[in-house]
Design brief:
Helices cover 57% and strands 0% of the residues. It is built from 3 helices and no strands. The chain has one domain (15-79). The longest helix is centred in the C-terminal third of the chain and has 26 residues, at 54-79. It starts with a helix and ends with a helix. With 80 residues, it is mainly α.
Length: 80
């Protein structure tokens, strides 16, 4: 996807909140993710909040979603 082309001229999204330790859970098993996983997830949010470019924000949201989905899938495999 060409994020610059797809989101050209669109305004920046509002800042997103950080996730507290113990609050980020696997949607499949309900297991609470580790502090290291929360730190990594929050780094995407910090980077998102630091930019005013919509294309970069959308890219970071997609990367954050991909990261947490892969973590959830790993967690699902461990639980089975």
């Amino acid at each position: 996807m060409n994020y610059d082309k797809a989101f050209a001229g669109q305004p920046a999204l509002p800042e997103q909140p950080m996730i507290a330790y113990g609050k980020l859970t696997c949607p499949y098993t309900g297991t609470v993710f580790s502090d290291a996983t929360v730190d990594a997830y929050n780094q995407y949010t910090k980077d998102f909040n630091a930019t005013r470019y919509r294309s970069t924000q959308e890219f970071l949201l997609d990367q954050r979603h991909k990261f947490i989905t892969l973590c959830a899938m790993d967690n699902l495999q461990v639980a089975s």
